[in-house]
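Course assignment 3, question 2. Fill in each field.
Student: A.L.
Task: Predict the tertiary structure for the chain below.
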Amino acid sequence: MGRMSRRAFAIAVLSTPAMARSAAADQGAPGRRPRGAAEMRGVWLATVANRDWPSRPGLTADEQRGELIAHLDKAVRDRLNTVVFQVRPTADALWPSPYEPWSEYLTGTQGRNPGWDPLGTAVQEAHARGLELHAWCNPYRIANHTDPGRLDPSHPARKRPDWVVAYGGKLYYNPGLPQVRAFVQRAMLDAVARYPVDAVHFDDYFYPYPVAGQTFDDDAAYEQYGGDFPGRAGWRRDNIDKLVQEMAAGIKRVRPGTRFGTSPFGVWRNATTDSRGSDTRAGVQTYDDLHADTRKWVRNHWIDYIVPQLYWHIGFAAADYATLVDWWAQVAKGTKTDLYIGEALYKAGAAGQPSQWQDPVELSRHLTLAAEHPQVRGHVFFAAKDVATDPIGAMARVVADHYGQPAKPPR
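Answer field:
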């Protein structure tokens, strides 16, 4: 499963929405940045399960290339400036990697050469259009099933089954093994060495989202490597801290000037759990459940930017967009880490979403509200297919209200 299933899960663990909105948000007056100010205007281009691109596996190289360029051209028309391209969705590659097989989402068969270089082409064509290209990688997910026999025979998970944990119907690399951490970094840094990507981007999957009644089996790794920690949760967080710190150092070593960012689940911790947390009632907390101390990464400037996924409407009782924008702005205040906000364009007009998401102005209100916080330096929209189709005109409203002139991304 890809981002959509995880987002649906995240919504399910939150309570029902409230209807209250701020008067300023109701007015929908567009917030304006100073003319010429740098601003992130990004879009995620997801490849897992062919979510956005390619539209289906098995297209010809020319057809795939044409679809990719169409997404880039649409970004330019909407005056966006950054494409966050998913190039390592499931321990595979959208470039000729010496470490991992070609992605099955290209040809339908993992390991089969698609006859062209999608990442190399994406970098070249994005830069030719004045777009930044951020290489989006998922560090530990191996497969959206639990059968190693379905993986390409050359897959590292076939050769090192001791690295693999089956959990929640999926296969993952074990973050508690130092050799796994070293390997996934080598695999991802190969793309940085080969191509002038503008950034490396991690999404919200570190340790997997919790599945009721199941246990992530890292007992052996904890027994071997966790002796210095009073509990498993602290050891797990340290494993992810090390991945982030080492990856940041590796990027700077391999290609100085390339940035490093993450897009975590939008709630670090609830205030009822930790006084430093947000005034929310989320059923998932990144610190506790995914073992990712994203607040620390911002405060310590271990990452260059963060894009919390604030995929809730203004006034949502369990996780109010306005409350979370303010909380993240305070976290980023006084740091060197850029704050961008992840926006749920995919919800606009979607069946089953509450009335707020049937209003094409909701997302424009988000940008108006966020503009009140100087720490917020832009937005990234999920995702490219929804930018292209824009069923109720929510993206068109954002462009009309906020993106009247082109803007360069922050550096």
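Instructor remarks: The chain has a mean pLDDT of 93. The chain has one domain: 3-16+31-139+177-402.
Grade: pending
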